[in-house]
Amino acid sequence: MTVVSAGAGAGRPRPTRLLADRVVEVVCRSLAAGGARAEVEVVELHRLAADLAQHAAHGRASLDLREAVAAVAAADGLVVATPVLAASPGELFDSFFAVLGDRVLAGMPVLLALHTGPHRPAPGLAHVLRGRLTGLRADPVPTVVVAGPPDRQSTSDGDAGELDARIGRAAAELAAAMRPHRH
């Protein structure tokens, strides 16, 4: 089974990418526990920023953008990790999903992971983002992983229980949704 990790984070260090990697690792373990072998492909949206802008302005997709879309289309499941900036996802998130459209995401099991700044996002934001994915005919799992600086601090202190539980629950939901999903 193929899991694509699409991360919309930028900057160094890349906390959104670290969150995505952590989630994908648990998804792979969940799949393995069910007897499935997972292959992972990573799509870093910050590397496609110029390609996404060109597509928005001229309607032309570069080779890199077409390859990213093809990777998502061929996936059995998708982990989407995006930073939350000023109570909304990053622009790369919106741009990439506009390119994908509903044909590519139809029926695709998706796990949404949000990396927040120092403040937690508005309570309804996860619902809004899940709604956007549903509007593209994707099949988002019920649990949304939300992590921020306090979670990174507790991880370094060795007390990551709550975040680990959310990741484990969401990963199990994605693995279960991926098993019957076939192209």
From TrEMBL:
Q: Name one GO molecular function term.
A: oxidoreductase activity
Cross-referenced Gene3D superfamilies, in alphabetical order? 3.40.50.360
List, for all copies, the residue spans of the domain called NADPH-dependent FMN reductase-like.
15-147
User: What UniProt keywords apply to this chain's record, in alphabetical order?
Assistant: Flavoprotein, FMN, Oxidoreductase
Q: What is this protein called?
A: Oxidoreductase
